[in-house]
Design a protein that fits this description.
Barwin-like endoglucanases, nine-stranded mixed β-sheet, mainly beta
Length: 129
Amino acid sequence: MLITFCTGKLHRVTVTGADINYVGSITIDKQLMKAAGIVPSQLIHINSLSNAAHWETYAILGEVGVICLNGCPARLFYPGDKVIIMAFALGTHAEAAKIKQKVVHVDDKNKIIRLERNPATPKAKAQKK
């Protein structure tokens, strides 16, 4: 049986453009794509931290610093929004267990500040009564 699992993530990147007239996709800084293990035309998911919008599309190579939503998602994601971009793959449970997921952290200009591999699951915070 195949399962879908996350292989890489760009955490809290800043949207730099939204082009309603382009024929779909998301343009992503080529250095960020390489760091997260995202390849051109790969299916990716985008989640907005600004409005909780979720979109699936394919990645295309962009210039340094660029995160541009093209086509329909240009109505959901705006320049200045923080988003999380995730890449997924299909594989067996055994393949998923071997993956060293890459999480790329960036500054406000989408410059890499830290790269994690297989980050630990965050501890849940205790709720105050």
